[in-house]
Write a structure and sequence with these properties.
There is one protein chain. The protein has 2 domains: 72 residues, no CATH class; 133 residues, no CATH class. It is α+β, with helices and mostly antiparallel strands and 222 residues long. It has 5 helices and 10 strands; from the N terminus they run H-E-H-H-E-H-E-E-E-E-H-E-E-E-E. It is elongated. The strands form 3 sheets. A 6-stranded mixed β-sheet has the order 1-6-5-4-3-2. The protein has a two-stranded antiparallel sheet with strand order 7-8.
Length: 222
């Protein structure tokens, strides 16, 4: 003999809501015309009005950028740390995040020396006159990169990485799961936070037979 069951009981046993989300997302920040040797040469020749395009012209710009970062961290009283090779940057900066009392802002700035694509100058010789002239070429070098670790009201933890050498390319890292957590909290929807997402517990059925999905956005890892 079968017993009558409510719709809520049937849904509880046979219906699952699963939503997939993006974990880390890296967004490249750059000026497209400054990613080629010709573009860099044109920048200094025509935009800056220089007679020759040379990497020597980049040095004052780099020093000015680094000085601006130093002024920023001092003015805002933000910790500035230096990462060494092999260190876990996320683990180190997590300690600073845990002590951060604001709703959003830059928590800590880290500096790390990394192999980075750059432009440099090499001397070339005119085959007709024999005179040498500077020429911009792509290369790589070990240069400092600044990591700005912050917290955003909508996206949660993030970092923005800036190269200190021309053309100062950057990379923004945000987390889709952290974004979901922030939006759920703003809507007043209960959830259990995980390191890599949010977890949906079993649905709750009240005495009237109504089904309540208290945690409707599961990202339970396998």
């Amino acid at each position: 003999m079968s017993l009558p069951r409510s719709v809520a009981e049937v849904l509880k046993l046979h219906v699952t809501l699963e939503v997939e989300g993006i974990d880390r997302m890296y967004l490249n920040v750059y000026q497209s015309r400054l990613q080629t040797d010709r573009g860099v040469a044109a920048f200094f020749r025509f935009h800056r009005g220089q007679t020759f395009a040379s990497s020597a012209l980049m040095n004052p710009m780099s020093k000015s950028f680094i000085a601006a970062v130093d002024r920023f961290v001092k003015q805002e009283q933000i910790p500035l740390i230096t990462f060494t090779k092999g260190q876990d940057k996320d683990a180190i900066t997590q300690e600073y995040r845990s002590r951060f009392c604001g709703t959003e802002g830059i928590v800590v700035v880290g500096k790390a020396q990394e192999k980075t694509p750059v432009f440099r100058t090499e001397k070339r010789r005119n085959p007709e006159t024999g005179q040498t002239y500077p020429w911009i070429v792509r290369s790589t070098a070990m240069v400092n990169n600044y990591y700005f670790y912050g917290i955003d009201a909508d996206f949660g933890p993030f970092f923005l990485k800036f190269c200190t050498y021309f053309p100062y390319n950057a990379k923004l890292c945000i987390n889709g799961h952290e974004y979901v957590k922030r939006q759920l909290a703003k809507e007043g929807i209960a959830f259990e936070a995980l390191d890599n997402g949010v977890y949906s517990g079993p649905p709750k059925v009240d005495h009237s037979g109504h089904l309540h999905l208290l945690r409707p956005f599961p990202f339970q890892p396998p």
